[in-house]
Amino acid sequence: MSAGAYNFAYLDEQTKRMIRRAILKAIAIPGYQVPFASREMPMPYGWGTGGVQVTAAIIGPDDVLKVIDQGSDDTTNAVSIRGFFVKTSGVATTTRTDAATVIQTRHRIPETPLAAGQILVYQVPIPEPLRFLEPRETETRTMHALEEYGLMHVKLYEDIARHGHIATTYAYPVKVAGRYVMDPSPTPKFDNPKMHRSPALQLFGAGREKRIYAIPPHTDVVSLDFEDHPFSVQEFDAPCALCGAEGVFLDEVIVDDAGGRMFVCSDSDHCEERRAAGHEGTLAGAPAWSGAAAAAATEDAS
Amino acid sequence: MALAAGFADPVFQSQATFRAVAAAMAEPGHAVALAAGLVPPAGLLATTAAVLLTLVDFETTVWLDDRLARTPEVADWLRFHTGCRITRDTDAADFAVIAEAGEMPPFSHFPQGTAEYPDRSATLVVEVEAMTAAAGQLLTGPGIEGAARFAAIPLPDGFWHAWQENHAAFPLGIDLVFCSPDAVAGLPRSTRPIREG
Ligand SMILES: [Zn+2]
Does A14 reach chain B within 8 Å, measured CB to CB? Predict the structure, then answer.
C-alpha cells in the first residue's frame, strides 16, 4: 500500500468486497437490481457515485480507463471522474474507445463497437424502470418477482394513443435475457440496440438508489414494443457536419451568436478519430468544436 | 502449527482475483487463468484460497464440506484472514466450499434466494482437478455466444441433470465457481445445459 492519503481507488477493501459480491450476483441474474450498501463518495449524488463505486471496485493497475459524459470525454463531469481515478489509483486513461479496458459512461454508449473483455460501467440515477408507474419499492419488487410488466406496456401504449408513436426517447425500457425489465439509464434509445448481444460486459451502478445490475456479454436485450408499433431508433436528417458520419447519434450545437446551428457527433472521440482519418462533413472548416459545448447544449434534453 | 499466510499484497491480488472470477461468471464455462500467488492452508487449492480471500469477510457465512471440515487448518485460516462465520448448516451458507466435488450435497440444500430477492442465494466454490472447453456438456445462456462446451473432473453422476433443475428455477438458484489448480470457471444459474440427441 502506498503512503498516499487514499486507499487504492478510494474505497476500503471491505467495501470493495461487498460491491464485488453484488456485481457477481448481478452478472448471474441479468437485469435484476441487486441492492448494495452504497457509500458516501467525495462527490455529490448526481455525479455518478454509483458508477464510480462500481469502477472503483473493479479497476486495477493494468486497466486503461475512459470516462464519457453525454458522449464527450471533456465535460466537467467526465474530467472530474477521470481525475478522481488518476489521483486515487494512478490508472492509465484514454479517450479512445478501442484502447480502453473500462469505460465509465453517463448517457451514451460509444459509437465504436465494444470488444470482448471490455467493461462498460453506466452511471444510473433511477434504476427502477417501474418507479414512475409505482412509487412503492415493495410493489415494484413484487412486480419484478411476478414478471408483472403489464403496466409498462400500458404506459407505452398511452404514448401511442396520445402521440401516434412511442414518445419515450431516453431510458427506454428493455427486457434482458427474456426475464427482467430494466432501465438502461438515461441513454438515448438510439443506443439500446448496442446493448443487445454486446461482446462487452455491461455494469450499472445507482449510488443514491443503492442498486447494481448487469448485462453479461452476448445477452439478449430487447426494447419493449408492440407488433403494430415496433421499436425504432431516432433518425437524423443529415450526417455529422464535422466528420460526415451517418447512423450515429448527433447533438445540435449552436455555433455563433446569430443562432447558427449544426448537428455533430455526440461521441466526440468518434468524431475526432474520423476527422483524423480524413473524413469531412459540410462544416469541416468550422471553428474548433468541443464536446463540452455540445454536452452543455444538450443538458436540458436529459 | 502456524497458519498459512494470506495475500502478500491484498489490494492488488484480490482485485486481480475478482476480475478473473467476474470474467468467469460473465463467460460461463470458459476457464479463466488465475495465478493465485499464495500458499494455501493444507487441504485447499491456492485458487480456491484466493477466491475466498477476495469474496469472503465478516459479513458472510461459509459452509465447508466434510473433508474440509475435518481439516481444522482451513476453518482457522478462513476465520483468521477473513473474519467469516463458519457453519455446518447448508441453509445458512452464503458461500459453500466443496473440496470433494463428487460428494457435493444437492443444490437445493443451499439458499436459493427469494422471488423478491433472488440474490440472497449461495455461491458454491467447487474444487476440481481439471476443466476443459474441448469436450463435455453443451451450454447456452447469457455470456455465451451461441453455445459452448464445458467439462470438469470430477463431477458427480447426474450433475448436469441437477444443474438443469437449478437453472429451471431461475431467477432463483445457486451459482457455482469451479476452481482448478490454475484457473476458475463460472456456472451462473442463468446457464442452461443443452440436451443432445
Ligand atoms: Zn462527427
Answer: yes
